[in-house]
Amino acid sequence: MERFFATCPRGLEAPLVEELTAVGAKQTEAVAGGVSFSGNGETCYRANLWSRFATRILWRVAHSPYLREEDIYRMAHDVPWHEHFTVRRTLRVHMTAIRCPLKSLDFITLRIKDAICDRFRAETSERPSVDTAEPNVRIHAFLSDREATLYLDTSGEPLYKRGFKYASVEAPLKENLAAGILHLAGWQPGTPLLDPMCGSGTFLLEAALMAHDIAPGLVRKFGFFRLANFDAALWQKLLTEAEGRRLPATLQPIFGSDISQDQVERARQNLAAAGMHESVQLECADLLQRNPPAAAGVLVANPPYGVRLEEAEWLAAFYPRLGDALKQRFAGWRCYFISADPQMPKLIGLKASKRTPLFNGALECRLLEYRMVSGQMRGKT
Question: pTM, whole model, 2 decimals?
Answer without folding.
Answer: 0.94
